[in-house]
Design goal:
- The chain contains five helices and no strands.
- The chain is an all-alpha fold and 115 residues long.
Amino acid sequence: MITQEDIEALHDEDMTFNEYQKTARSTAFYKDKVVYPALGLCGESGEVAEKIKKWLRDGTIDDKEVAKELGDVLWYIANLAEDLGYNLAEVAKMNMDKLRDRAKRNVLKGSGDNR
């Protein structure tokens, strides 16, 4: 288990995806694997969308508050990935491989999961 001392020893700008995931996991206390982080991800994504909506309405945005919500989104992504048996570096690599393949086939634009 990662300790508070371990967390403080990490230099944020040098943290890897997998270091973040280990640290995030040490703060995860829930029973319903997969379900809890999936629902939390929906909720936190909604909070990001709310901040953007208010920007459209009011014409101003508090980017630090949006970044904080993005951190919550990242926490849920890290724990959902862990529950599914993936580390964040693997998830990031899979995503880049998918995007490179789409770019090579000239289908970055468009819709559909498997274009």
